[in-house]
Specification:
The chain is about 70% helix and about 0% strand. Helix 3 packs across helix 4, helix 6 runs antiparallel to helix 9 and helix 11 packs antiparallel against helix 14. It is mainly α. The longest helix is centred in the middle third of the chain and has 25 residues.
């Protein structure tokens, strides 16, 4: 019912959602027959359906390398995330993880649900990893080693300053950006991007996730996970968990807006990185998550619901991003639109209003100076009710036809 209600409210979502559903089914049909590769791609769909869809569009060799890179890092992340593992057990595993991926006999049971399955059967990932080209293996090993060491460092260290925050995000996400740039280069499809631009791509995504996931992280059992830097939140409350209490709502939103403003500093680098990509499938692979990030920041900004529950882009809007992101014009259009939405939400009395508006103006300026805004399709932030009644009628007709078809088949059987 929730999906139908959303479609009736946003009828323009229907066609992209339908295409996304079909694409997801087609992707599942393309899972390789070999046991280890079947496990890897099946697991990829379970831990990240939208990411899996974008990966499917890459060329075969690069697709396999990115799939394994993602699963290796998800496994590493599962060890880091499991707060029930004692520090003296966790730290050596994180540090040695880059060696474990070469060992088909190694596994470590931790995590929950599909992540536990991944860890229990990680030998399938190791088997697939060992079939990759040497250049892909070396890139994955290098990033896994550096990330594991960084995660181990922050197991024993709080995120106090903004520099700490940037360093932590570099280890858990900036290095992903560096690794992907290495894989793109190893495939022969792209020039090797600079470390600073690659790092910004990862930091933009990671900071967005940290902002959005505040409540989930702070309520983690048996121990809270705290990634918001003390240098920011201590300006508003005495303890990070105080942000979730209703009596601190005004300060909580001000702190949230401060965090969003910090994340926006990476947007321009992300645009520069994407503009340099040549391969269309790699471009879409990179661009879709970046658009989702700025869209999520626009949704979170000035929104007390971040401290009350789950805040994320509706599925229909996600489907539109996946469906309509084809060129850099679309990216500039999306960034410009979402920056405009953010701008409209800035309260002039917010302590960081001037800094926030300055960042948004810089993003909008980059988009305008591209000269491509006029070439974009009608994109994400539009009045979607202009032909809403027509779409609703069409939807009702289509549902009726499908229902009649299914009913006829049922009676015939």
């Amino acid at each position: 019912m929730g999906t139908l209600r959303s479609i009736l409210k946003h009828p323009d979502d229907f066609y992209p959602l339908l295409k996304l559903k079909i694409a997801a089914r087609n992707a599942e049909k393309q899972i390789p027959p070999e046991l280890h590769w079947a496990f890897c791609y099946t697991m990829l769909h379970k831990v990240s359906r939208s990411f899996a869809l974008v990966i499917q569009q890459l060329g075969t060799d690069l697709r396999n390398a990115v799939c394994i890179f993602y699963l290796v890092l998800r496994a590493l992340d599962t060890v880091e995330d499991d707060t029930s593992i004692a520090t003296d057990v966790k730290v050596p595993i994180l540090i040695a993880f880059h060696r474990h991926i070469y060992d088909r006999d190694w596994h470590f049971s931790c995590g929950t649900k599909e992540y536990k399955v991944l860890m229990d059967q990680i030998h399938h990932v190791s088997t697939a990893f060992l079939e990759l080209g040497k250049n892909y293996q070396e890139a994955i090993e290098d990033i896994t080693k550096r990330m594991g060491a960084g995660m181990a460092k922050f197991i024993c260290k709080e995120v106090e300053t903004i520099d700490d925050y940037d360093e932590y995000c570099h280890y858990v996400a900036g290095l992903v950006g560096l690794g992907l740039s290495k894989l793109f280069h190893a495939s022969g499809s792209e020039d090797l991007a600079s470390d600073s631009l690659s790092n910004s791509m990862g930091l933009f995504l990671q900071k967005t996730n940290i902002i959005r996931d505040y409540l989930e992280d702070i309520n983690e059992i048996p121990k809270s996970r705290m990634f918001w830097p003390r240098e920011i939140w201590s300006k508003y409350v005495n303890k990070l968990e105080d942000l979730k209490y209703e009596e601190n709502s005004v300060k909580a939103v001000q702190c949230l807006n401060d965090m969003v403003t910090n994340a926006l500093m990476h947007a321009e680098d992300s645009l520069i990185y994407m503009a340099a990509l040549r391969d269309s499938s790699i471009f879409r692979f990179c661009a879709i998550p970046q658009i989702m990030a700025i869209g999520t920041l626009a949704l979170c900004y000035n929104n007390i619901e971040v401290f009350r529950g789950v805040v994320k882009m509706r599925r229909g809007l996600t489907a539109k991003v996946i469906d309509r992101t084809k060129t850099m014009a679309d990216v500039y259009g999306a960034f410009f639109d979402f920056a405009s939405v953010l701008e409209s939400k800035v309260d002039k009395n917010d302590p960081n209003a001037t800094k926030t508006l300055s960042r948004l103006v810089a993003i909008q300026k980059s988009c305008r100076e591209s000269g491509l805004l006029s070439k974009r399709k009608s994109f994400i932030v539009k009045n979607e009710n202009g032909y809403g009644s027509f779409m609703i009628v069409m939807l009702v007709i289509m549902v009726s036809i499908i229902f009649a078809y299914l009913s006829a088949n049922h009676h015939n059987n």
